[in-house]
Amino acid sequence: MSEVIKQSQQFSSQNFLGRHIIAEFFNADFDALNKGEQLKEAMEVAAKAAGATILSSHQHTFEPHGVSSVVIIQESNLCIHTWPEFGYAAADFFTCGDTVNPWKSFDSLKEYLKAGRYNCMEVQRGSVNLIKDQKLVDMGQVQTALRITGGDGLSTKVHSEAIQMQIPEGYTAYTAHELNDELNQHITTIAKMKEVKQTKFQKVAIGHNSWWGMTMWVDDVLNVTERDEFVYHELMVHVPMFVHPNPTRALIIGGGDGGSARELLKHPNLTNATMIDIDEELVMMCKKYMPKINNGAFDNPNLNLKFDDGIKFVKEAPDNSFDVIIVDSTDPLPDSVGEALFTKEFYENCHRILSPNGTISTQALMPMRYDADIFKRSMGNIQHAFGKDKMFVFFGPTDAYNGQTSFCLGFKGDSHPKKVDKPRIKEFMKTANLKYYSYGMHLASLTLPNYVRSILYD
Questions:
Q1: Residues labelled as active-site residues
Q2: pLDDT for the residue 159
Q3: Burial letters for 331-348: b for 16+ Cβ neighbours within 10 Å, e otherwise?
Q4: What is the pTM of this model?
């Protein structure tokens, strides 16, 4: 018994209607690929090897070469198309139920074709869960089990078993896209989806993962998770709040999950805490499904929550309106929603409405994941508004993204990131219930890796 077949026996079609093997054969024998009647007979043998009941079979031979053949079986079908001139064939084996094993068909055909190399995947089709509750389909759920193998035709060894996902009932494999196409990777999270909605501005999906907790994707890009959000939000808020010597008026632009508002409201001296977010539907979804992140911030009477365009708000705000501005937005990539919050004009208006010792922190980028020119351009725009000596970049880990993210800090007057009041921070920590930020972490976050210094300053 081949290793492929042996391992496939543990891959049953429970909770699925059928098993679908998509196979490619390389370096196959020319005559085996080009003789239509013999190939049709080989397909019939492959069907019988799987334990299938044949209903009919057909083949068509092309000129000057190539064959298409299909075997209709009681349990579904087997089909193949060949390119003899390339020694290549593409085949599909689809079977229903547990009475047949499509991998036996694969193995039989591989032997007939004398394929030197192959790769294939099995996809379980027809999730019973999705059929019973089709609202899950409307939410964008995908429930499947995927198994990928590859190898050579001289032995039956499986060279790699790359993926085998058994997805619990009610959960889905939600795949996040990367805004940087050159990464050539995606992050798939097994999550129980709570709601998927296209708002007026963006697609928002919220689900629960057994490790990361409540997780949100915005336009299919991973945005925030309950498990590690405190690192991002504590740095985003408390660094600028302690750089300013005595902030009483603070503005959040964006921050729809409520984490930044939660941290901002821990500061007792605030007389004006304003949050501007353009997407009310996103905020309401976060309020409903992610209460551990916002911790009631949206209902706090000390928060002035407005649903408006942050760019317009800043442009129309009077001079000297705020001591601290926190720009908690999506990534500033070209043609993205977040790009407009990282322009020279936007930063110039932020500089104007800040008080004489005002500070601003912005979500920047994960420089290891994006093109260095994008990162440098974003930093250059805030430097343009605040001055070369009035801009710092600081860093924090993002475990859900397996890397580091950066923040940009602009400051005015006597404020300086390295001149913070240590006793003030220690007093704040007594009641703030902080998990990451401290005086030591404040200073440590300002130390840049050499590769980032090279991007910014070389």
A1: 328
A2: 35
A3: bbbeebbbbebbbeebbb
A4: 0.71
